[in-house]
Design a protein that fits this description.
The protein has 339 residues and is of the alpha/beta class. It folds into two domains: 169 residues, DHBP synthase (Alpha-Beta Complex), CATH 3.90.870; 106 residues, Rossmann fold. The protein contains eleven helices and 16 strands. The strands form two sheets. It has a ten-stranded mixed β-sheet, with helices on both faces. It has a six-stranded mixed β-sheet with strand order 13-12-14-11-15-16, with helices on both faces. Helix 1 packs across helix 6. The longest helix is centred in the last third of the chain and has 16 residues. It is globular. It starts with 8 loop residues before the first helix and ends with a strand.
Amino acid sequence: MVRVVRATQVEIESAVQALRDGELVAFPTETVYGLGANAQNPAAVVRIFEAKGRPPNHPVIVHLDSPRYLHRWVREVPEAATRLAESFWPGPLTMVMPRAASVHDVITGGQDTIAIRVPAHPMAQQLLTAFGGGIAAPSANRYGRLSPTRAEHVREELGEAARVILDGGECQIGLESTIVSFEGGGVRLLRPGSVTAAQLREVVGELVSGADSRSPRVPGGAPTHYAPTTPMTIVPAGEIDAQADAASAGARRVAVLAQRLPLRAHKYVTWINAGRRPESYGRDLYANLRTLDKAGCQRILVQAVPDGERWEAIRDRLLRAATSVAESDDGTSTLAVLP
C-alpha cells in the first residue's frame, strides 16, 4: 500500500511564494513528480525548459485544482471533454483542447492547443488550491530520462533547480497520465496511461488510438523517451535467462528486470523480479530502472511484458526507453536496434 502524505501549511506557503516569485517547485502527483512554474509567467516556464534541457517546441501540461478554471485556458471545451472530466477528474487523464487567446506559446510549443490535467494527489491539490492558478509542470527530470516517482529522484537529478521540493512519498500510479485530444467531434488516444482505452470508450463511445500527421505534439510523444543511461534491450519473455547468460559471458555485468525470479543463479547478473501484476509493475517501473541504472552494468535486459490493455502503458514506456529489441524467430534471436 502506497502511503499518501499531506504537506504542512508552512511547506505549502513556501511553495506558493516560490511560484509567485517565478521560481520552480517540484511536487507529487498520483502519476509522477512534476516540475512546476506559474503557468501565467512565461519567464518562469522557460526556467523549466532550461532545468530539464527540454526542446522549446515541446508543450507542457497545465495543472488545475478543478475544471472551474478551464475557461481561463481553453477557448472551447468539447462535449466529450466535459463527459471525460466528469468521469476521470481529478485523476490521471490529460486532455488536449483549443487554447485560449491569453495562453503563451511557451506553454503550447507554439501550437493552437493546450494540455490540461486536474491531478488527484492530495498534496498537488493542496498546492493548486492555495496557489489559485494554473501550474505548468512536465515531469521533474532531465528531458528524455526516467521519470521521478519519489522526491529523492528529483533531488538526485535536478539538484537545486527547484527552490522547493514537496515530498509526498511514492507516487501511487508511477506512470505518466493518459493523454487524449479531440478532432471533429471524435476522441483520439495520444498516450496510453492508467485510464485505459476501454474506460475511455465507456464514456465517449468510439475512440481512435495513436497520433497521425495532424495530431498535436504532446508530452512523451518522442520515439525515444523515459530512458535509463545504461543501454536497454527488451527480450522475449521465455528467453530472459538465456539472454542473461549470453550477455554476461566474459564476466560482463548485466542487469535484468523480469516478472519472475531467475531459473538459476547468474554470477554477473543483477536481477529484479517486478512481478506479474501490471499495477505494481507500473508503479515501480521507473524506481526499478533507476536501481538497475546505478548497478554498474553494461546493459539492462527487460523481459517483454504480456499483451493486453492492462500492460499497454507499460509496454509503451519500455519501447520508448529501449535502445534495442531482441526478437525470437524459430528459436533464434536477432537484435533490432531502435532509432
